[in-house]
Amino acid sequence: MVKNKLGEETESYSFNISDRVSPIVEVDRVIPGVTNTTVSWIVQGNLTQLTLLCQVATEPHTTIEELICKSLDGCCKVRLEHLLPNTRYSTRVRCSVNRRLWGKWTQPVSFTTRLSKDPSAILNLWRTIKQLSDPHSRNVTLLWTLQVPGSATTVITQGYTVQWSQEGVSRTEWKDSGQTQAEVSIGQGQYNFTVQAVLHSGLTISDHITVPKMDDRENLPVVRRLTSSASGGFNLSWAEQVTATCGYTVEWCILGPAVPFTLQWMKTSKGVNTLFLHGRHFKAGCRYEFNISECTENGHRLLEIQTGYSQELKSVQSPSLVGPAQSTSSSVTLEWHYNEDNPAHSAFITGYLVTVQEVGSEILPGQAANMFNVSVEDPRRKTVTIEGLQPSHEYALFVSALTSKGPGQPASITIRTRTNYSVHLAKILAPILLLLGCIILLWPQRKLLKNGLKEIFVYPAGMNIKTSELHTFLNKTDERVLHHKVEDCISCDIEILDTHPPLNEAINQASSMALSCAPLQADYRPQSAVLLCTTPALQQIKCIANRSYFDPMAGDVSEPQVTFSEIKSSFEPSDCLQESCSIICDYISSDTLQL
């Protein structure tokens, strides 16, 4: 209500108390019995007009019992059944009005069930069957344990009586109190076994089991792998069988060369096809095998074989490499041996991991390593071919077995790829094939090419004169000409031939030839030559023509017709390297000139 000078205003809000309030519960007392306990509690507040729904939880097996509490004094109670004698429990309670809003759980209250004067011990009997070398004989090992309900109760026994029968014939054998197994040889038929425990008080506890007859047509069991859980235990389940009239039996043991382990088993009731086994009873990294059998009127029959680890470990053995590895210029084929089904492994083998790394490769900061991985998903495949490698390179290969936790210990090998000769061969054959192609294309024009090459590389006919021989010949000719007079050359004529190159260029060439004599190229005429001789003194040019080469009958020798051609020279003092030059024209007698 709000009130001021203008007046007052009132507002109301109504709600259902059951939607806003949860009951507060307090445990009143606990009265334990041998196999049951009475628990009572008080609901605080005036809630007697409401119908309360309460839950009572019992530990350690976490059972919750739900009941309706309607009491005039606010006190409720419940009787907890099916408890074990001489066992410690704890209980707690909570309540609700409408099932939607629950109150808080009370603090756990502990209690211990009472010890029975005559403890009801249970004899648990099981067997294993082994086929002997004789196909008509089997060996049966009977195993039993004496289980007493409660955590503090012990039973003292005098011994055990083992009895078996087959087709009306029975035998009995006595075992001391410290023994828990017996071995019996049987045949192919069906046998009934009974083990009786004689207690110190004189009471007897017995259990019975039937071994079915040998049947070659028996169905093979289903084989499965179990997945390990985070808690480290096992959640077992199997297909329910209509023929299982007396429940199921689950037996388990450790596989592989591990610490000696006693065969364990547990029985379930009819219609129960699941079983949880806590991880504290199992060791990490050890493989366990669970055999699940159904109980029928004719004995137990194996249904499934399940194997698994409570916790798988990463460290498994390394494979054994088969060497040397087969390699090419760009690939490597690697092979190894490994027993993937070895029960000594600390985990199931799911495949293999091959790591390839180039040897000697430098890894710079911030760059990825020059390596890559190749996975083999099939654990039964033990070979792999790695492609894409460089020729003539050295690689390190690591092979490790894969598990669900990752790769195990690796085995390593170093290989070198081969040289790729095909690349070198291609480099050699490419120019050869190109040349052959050119030859094939130019073969129709071979005559034209041949003539052209002759003009370039072959001397004209008769011009294959050696330089040394020509030099000697010209020196001798020069000496002979100097000893003759003009009047003695009655049968010779001196003329200037058209020479190439010009004289000034020839002199420049002669100076670069270290004061040597070289022939000037001239129009070829028999018994005629042009010389350019460079000497430190006087430069001379002699042009000689032997008229005796011509037919002597063509003219009168006594009256020779001698003509002189006009000599025109382009010599200049500067063309002779600032030296004096002169031209001497003489006659050579045909009688005295003998070359």
Oligomer: single chain
The count of β-strands is 37
Strand order of the largest sheet: 17-23-22-19-20
**Ranges with pLDDT <50 over ≥5 residues?**
364-368, 510-595
How many separate helices? 4
Distance N to C terminus: 162 Å
Largest sheet report: 5 strands, mixed
Shape: elongated
Provide the residue-averaged pLDDT: 76
Instruction: Specify the structural class.
Output: mainly beta
Q: Please give the domain count.
A: 6
Classify the beta-strand content into a percent band. Answer: 35-45%
Helix content: under 10%
* Rg over CA atoms: 62 Å
Plain-language structure description:
This protein is mainly β and 595 residues long. The protein folds into six domains: 17-112, Sandwich (Immunoglobulin-like), CATH 2.60.40; 122-211, Immunoglobulins (Immunoglobulin-like, Sandwich), CATH 2.60.40.10; 222-309, Immunoglobulins (Immunoglobulin-like, Sandwich); 320-361 and 369-416, Immunoglobulin-like, CATH 2.60.40.10; 421-456; 467-583, no CATH class. The protein is built from four helices and 37 strands. The protein has a five-stranded mixed sheet, with no helix packed on it. Strands 26, 27, 29, 30 and 31 form a five-stranded antiparallel sheet that branches. A four-stranded antiparallel sheet has the order 6-5-8-9, with no helix packed on it. A hairpin with a 4-residue loop joins strand 24 (320-327) and strand 25. The longest helix has 22 residues, at 421-442. The model is unreliable at 364-368 and 510-595 (pLDDT under 50).
